[in-house]
């Protein structure tokens, strides 16, 4: 007997249909509202399908699937906007990637720790795996976003073509090395851990889905993510109008869109933390930040040769200060392999500072 379709099977398809009818058109208030509701539904559906796929393939592959899928579609969105308005979007890649780093390391980790430490609990995670992931994110951020602000071969916070090539190749190799470490050489470093610190391989709560169910969920996950990014683009004029009406800088639009795109990973990480699998939350957060840099920068380094668009990657002093503070606090959180509510509040405070300073630079 064939199982009846559920809400998370139907909503991605409805969101995709709405995207097809609304993309590139001027929408009225009613259409904008409908698209916003379907965007929220696509986010929730993406989380559901990501968890089904993750249950089938196990950790850390499940976290990797969601992180890479979101990042690939995010790169497509950046390229679309750069082609549409090259001069206006010169800093779009920088703002989007930096927002992804701050949202994942500040917001997603902070929310996950807050959920995991409920009831005076002190959750555990694998410091070896999470520490290696954090070190990779810090290295990638420095190579691609901080170095352009301190190099002197080209005026302004930009790379020369040779420097951009070096940064792109380095980012791609580092990301590939991490994926190999996470999935092959030291997979046990990225598995959820028990109270005694031993890795947990598998899910004790339910039998894994069938292969057919997992493939269907993978396809609907990709459809959901396309709908999320596409509808975020559709909603961007309304977001821009709201940002202008509130007197906020135009760069804040990128933060809002990044928040929308990363909603599936945020909800998935919070759900994992609620189930006592904080390592899965760490995999999602750090893997998303890493994929956002390790895949985006190499892709854009190739793309700028064909679309002839300026690419400003260097961060400003305020952003560099926030990045340094974030990595120091994240290191002190991860090194012990366990966390308290205090660590959660510090990460959330840094995330709130990022959002506030994006609103009021």
From TrEMBL:
Q: Where the protein is mainly located, per its record? A: membrane
For this protein, the record's InterPro entries field holds: Alkaline_pH_Ca-Antiporter, NaCa_Exmemb
Transmembrane feature ranges: 7-24, 30-49, 61-84, 96-117, 129-150, 162-179, 214-232, 252-272, 284-307, 313-335
UniProt domain Sodium/calcium exchanger membrane region: residue ranges = 30-183, 217-358
Q: How does it sit in the membrane?
A: Multi-pass membrane protein
User: Subcellular location, in the record's words?
Assistant: Membrane
Q: Which UniProt keywords apply?
A: Membrane, Transmembrane, Transmembrane helix
> Is Transmembrane helix there in the keyword field?
yes
Could you identify this protein by its name? Calcium:proton antiporter
Where is the organism placed in the taxonomic lineage, from the top? Bacteria, Bacillati, Actinomycetota, Actinomycetes, Micrococcales
């Amino acid at each position: 007997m064939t199982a009846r379709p559920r809400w998370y099977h139907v909503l991605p398809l409805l969101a995709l249909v709405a995207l097809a009818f609304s993309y590139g058109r001027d929408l009225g208030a009613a259409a904008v509202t409908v698209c916003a509701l379907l965007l929220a539904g696509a986010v929730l559906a993406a989380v559901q399908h990501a968890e089904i796929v993750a249950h089938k393939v196990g950790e850390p592959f499940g976290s990797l699937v969601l992180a890479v899928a979101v990042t690939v579609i995010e790169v497509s969105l950046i390229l679309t906007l750069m082609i549409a308005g090259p001069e206006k979007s010169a800093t779009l890649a920088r703002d989007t990637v930096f927002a992804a780093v701050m949202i994942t390391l500040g917001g997603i980790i902070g929310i996950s720790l807050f959920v995991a430490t409920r009831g005076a609990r002190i959750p555990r995670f694998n410091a070896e795996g999470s520490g290696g992931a954090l070190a990779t994110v810090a290295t990638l951020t420095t190579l691609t976003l901080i170095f352009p602000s301190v190099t002197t071969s080209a005026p302004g916070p930009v790379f020369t073509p040779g420097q951009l090539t070096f940064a792109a190749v380095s980012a791609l190799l580092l990301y590939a090395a991490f994926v190999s470490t996470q999935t092959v050489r030291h997979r046990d470093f990225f598995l959820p851990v028990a109270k005694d610190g031993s890795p947990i391989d598998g899910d004790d709560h339910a039998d894994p889905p069938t292969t057919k169910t997992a493939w269907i969920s993978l396809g609907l996950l990709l459809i959901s993510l396309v709908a999320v990014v596409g509808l975020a683009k559709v909603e961007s004029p309304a977001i821009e109008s709201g940002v202008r009406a509130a007197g906020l800088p135009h760069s804040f639009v990128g933060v809002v869109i990044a928040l929308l795109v990363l909603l599936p990973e945020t909800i998935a990480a919070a759900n994992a933390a609620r189930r006592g699998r904080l390592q899965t939350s760490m995999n999602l957060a750090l893997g998303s930040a890493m994929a956002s840099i390790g895949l985006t920068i190499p892709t854009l380094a190739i793309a700028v040769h064909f679309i002839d668009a300026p690419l400003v990657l260097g961060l400003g002093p305020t952003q560099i200060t926030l990045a340094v503070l974030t990595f120091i606090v994240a290191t002190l959180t991860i090194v012990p392999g366990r966390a308290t509510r205090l660590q959660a509040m510090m990460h959330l405070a840094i995330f709130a500072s990022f959002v506030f300073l994006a609103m009021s630079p």
